[in-house]
Predict the 3D structure of the following.
Amino acid sequence: MIPEELDRAIEREIAKGNKPFFVNSMAGSTVMGAFDDHHAIADICQKYGVWHHIDACYGGYLIFSQEAKETIYNGCDRADSVGINPHKGMGVPQQCSMILTNNKKDALRRANTSGAEYLFHETEYSKYDIGDKTLSCGRRPDGLKLWMCLQRRGLDDYRRNADDCLRKARHLTKMVKERSEAFQMVNEPCATNVCFWYTPPAFRNGEYTFEQKANVHKLIFDRMQRKGSLLIQHNPLPEHDLPNFIRVTVKGEKTSMEDMEYILDEIDRIGNDIDASMV
């Protein structure tokens, strides 16, 4: 998000007689893993009295890293709310989602309460009953899974994992840049999403069209499925005029630095023979 454009967009809506009330910024977008400037967006939201929510559903696991707190998460403490999916990057079984509010006591109750006396009764235990805080009235105790994982692994383990994922993503990015004949970065990663293209030898000294590039990565993904040695997603971003590319999301504690090298070697092995007749 471009903060200056956000400011102008809010001004335009106010000029029309509308009242903007909610801004959603990103802390780890699904494809590129992008992070917004939380401080700049918080300034604008506070200027106009707009609720600032940070979508950290994917990138929330990196908040445990001190480095991330000082860089990509700098300013997140100023948001009104943050959404996190612990089943992404924290090893919690699906589904486990949470929303954190910043000094907004009873916000969910005020927003969703039905006040159905035949269902909800005020007792000393009512504060533990989340039924009247949700649209769906009741839900599974997913928080128990998060609590158990925190007891089993501890905060220090999550800190180590977050730092390790950042290191592995940087290492993979460095290797992609060093092997520029075969691989090209799509963008400079904000955090742990490493996006790149592969160029088979048949296309390295000649034309490599948008359509060919897209189909090469589709074919590599199909071969991964058949061989079973890797399974890494490929993504197009046609709205940005980007053909399909390989998207490595580094978030598991089971991978190593050596695995990052293996990823590139195996993609090269799988796609080395692809030529124009196949795509």
About this structure: The first helix runs from residue 3 to 15. The first strand starts at residue 22 and ends at 26.
